[in-house]
Structure formats: structure tokens, C-alpha cells
Write a structure and sequence with these properties.
about 290 residues; Rossmann fold; 8 helices; binds NADP nicotinamide-adenine-dinucleotide phosphate; globular; about 15% strand; 7-stranded parallel β-sheet; alpha/beta
Length: about 290
């Protein structure tokens, strides 16, 4: 039996959207590089808040048409409306649970029915669950594997045949900076080992897809900030200041899309400054993945 929804936590990072705070105020949609994506279609999962929403805003600012996916319809619709109004782009939202194959098939079918093609796939949707291993809720392994690993791999499998046929495409996936740590950080075992598997898969995919002119890029972000009101209330300002804004990940996406056609950023890592590598930026208290 799953615990009540109240007890379930979204991703530990709980990024609520591009924040109106410190470092990045006012530049959520401004890239440091010029990228023109008019005429291109991008599909972004996890686009209703946090990193995915920041990436969606950035892609809209580059002029791309967008297919956005997440489970919650309300936040998704709101994001679609906002991007269409502000950037004058075409966008659709498709409520999707990436852990379910049928939902992924529906997502790709809706995207192709509306836009005919997908040029760029950006996998962001993910959940987290951090616990000492012996205390981790047993249901979380399946949830993490189905969402954070299969959710990426299956969607890529569904999207890539058309890219191969057109000999064009770019697959960008938000993995995790925790995969750079060896051994995996304490209490991150299930989450990070799956992300490591995902990172290995994406590296292999890069080699396999080069001959089809498809680029494959993995993003490895450190700890990204959110409003985190319930999680961060006891955290010192000095610790909050270390958290990265989701805009830092949108910057990685813009960079990945800005390089010349005959080059591909295979992996990009952006890690928090001023943070001891082996020490958590913030200690998270989670009950269960959501
Ligand atoms: N934040 C960090 O510190 C950090 C660091 C490294 C890597 N990452 C990775 O970045 C990604 C996004 O993290 P975030 O911090 O932006 O998380 P977040 O703020 O919790 O947002 C997660 C997004 O994914 C969606 N989502 C979650 N489960 C889903 C599912 N089963 N099907 C479809 N959509 C789903 C959520 O919408 P719904 O709940 O409505 O579905 C939401 O739009 C994750 O893959 C995470 O592992 C995050």
C-alpha cells in the first residue's frame, strides 16, 4: 500500500519554476548564446515546473514550437498558455506519466499529429527518493526505475526512428551531477545508480546515433534550487546561496544547441560552487518518491 499523498514528496530538489530570486532575476528567458529554433519542434518532459519549466521558457525564447508533458494537467496548461502568450509560439500540453508506456505512446502520437515531427527531445521528468538504503520504501525502486530510467529510454526509443529516417535530431537528457561521485553519495543509492545507468546508456546512444546525424547530450547538474519552502525553512542563508537556479540548466541546453552542426556536447556538468564535493549542499528528508 502506498502512503497518503500528503506524505509523498516530489523530487528532493522540488524546484517550482524559474525563481524570482537572487542571481538570475530577470534573465530566465535570456540565453548567453544565440540559438534560432524557428521551425523546430521540441518535446520537453517535466515541463510544468522546476528545471523542465525553465528549459521550456528558454526553448520558447529561441522560437521553437513546443510539446510539453507532465502528469499534472493544470500546471501544464498554465505553462502552455504563458509561453504562447509571451512568445507567440505554437505549443501543446499532453498530460503524461512517463513511467507508463501507454502514456508515452500517446504523447508521441499527439506530438506527431499536431506538429508532424519532433526535432529535439528534452527529457527532464524525474522523481527522487533519498534514504539510508535499509530504510528506503520498497515501492520506490520500481517508481524510480520506471520514471527516471525507463521514462527516458522508452521515450527516446519511440521518438528516434523518425529522427533516424530524417537523419536529423538532438536528444538532450537531464541526468545528475551525482553520477560524478564515486562512490555514490550516501542515501542516494537507488536514485544515483539508476542515473549512472542512464548516463552509460546515453553515452552508448551517442556513438550509435552519430552515423545517423543525431546528437545525444547528457546534462549533469549539481543541486538546483526551488522555493523549497517546506524543505528549506531551517536552512541557513549561506546554504541557500549555494543552490543553482534552474536557469543554469536552461543555459546548458542553449549551449548544447548552439554548437556547430558537426560537433556534439556529449556531457555537460554544471556543479554548485563553494560546496564541499562529498558533503550534501542540503540534507533532504524524504518519505517516498512521488
Ligand atoms: N533539482 C536538482 O537539484 C536536480 C539535480 C540534478 C538532476 N536533477 C534532475 O532534473 C530533473 C527535474 O528535476 P526538478 O528539480 O526540476 O524536479 P521538480 O521540480 O520536482 O519537477 C519535476 C517535473 O517532472 C514532472 N514529473 C515528475 N514525475 C513525472 C512522471 N512520472 N511523468 C511525467 N512527469 C513527471 C513534474 O510534474 P508532475 O508532478 O505534474 O508530473 C515536474 O514537471 C529530474 O530528472 C532530476 O533527477 C535535478
Amino acid at each position: 500500500m502506498r502512503k497518503s499523498k500528503r506524505l509523498l514528496r516530489p523530487l528532493h530538489h522540488m524546484v517550482q519554476g524559474p525563481r524570482n530570486d537572487t542571481v538570475c532575476k530577470g534573465r530566465e528567458d535570456m540565453a548567453n548564446v544565440t540559438v534560432d529554433l524557428k521551425g523546430k519542434v521540441a518535446l520537453i518532459t517535466g515541463a510544468s515546473r522546476g528545471i523542465g519549466k525553465a528549459v521550456a521558457i528558454r526553448m520558447a525564447s529561441h522560437g521553437a514550437s513546443l510539446v510539453l508533458a507532465s502528469r499534472g494537467k493544470e500546471a501544464l496548461d498554465e505553462t502552455v498558455r504563458y509561453l504562447k502568450d509571451k512568445y507567440g509560439i505554437d505549443a501543446i500540453g499532453v498530460p503524461t506519466d512517463v513511467s507508463k508506456l501507454a502514456d508515452l505512446q500517446n504523447l508521441v502520437q499527439k506530438a506527431k499529429a499536431h506538429f508532424k515531427k519532433i526535432d529535439i527531445l528534452i527529457n527532464v521528468a524525474g522523481v527522487s527518493s533519498q534514504h539510508p538504503f535499509h530504510l528506503q520504501p520498497i515501492e520506490d525502486f520500481e517508481m524510480l526505475a520506471n520514471t527516471n530510467y525507463l521514462g527516458y529510454v522508452r521515450l527516446i526509443r519511440l521518438v528516434i526512428p523518425d529522427m533516424v529516417e530524417r537523419k536529423n535530431g538532438h536528444i538532450i537528457s537531464v541526468v545528475s551531477g551525482s553520477t560524478l561521485c564515486d562512490p555514490i553519495p550516501r542515501t542516494f543509492l537507488a536514485y544515483s545508480s539508476l542515473k549512472m545507468g542512464l548516463r552509460a546508456f546515453l553515452k552508448g546512444l551517442f556513438w550509435e546515433m552519430r552515423e545517423h546525424n543525431i546528437k545525444v547530450t547528457s546534462l549533469l547538474p549539481g543541486v538546483v534550487a526551488s522555493d523549497l519552502t517546506d524543505h528549506l525553512k531551517d536552512v541557513a542563508q549561506e546554504q541557500r546561496d549555494r543552490l543553482m537556479d534552474p536557469v543554469a540548466v536552461a543555459d546548458m541546453v542553449s549551449f548544447a544547441l548552439s554548437v556547430p552542426a558537426n560537433a556534439c556536447p556529449l556531457e555537460l556538468a554544471v556543479i554548485n560552487q563553494l560546496t564541499t564535493w562529498t558533503k550534501p549542499v542540503i540534507d533532504y528528508k524524504q518519505t517516498q518518491a512521488k
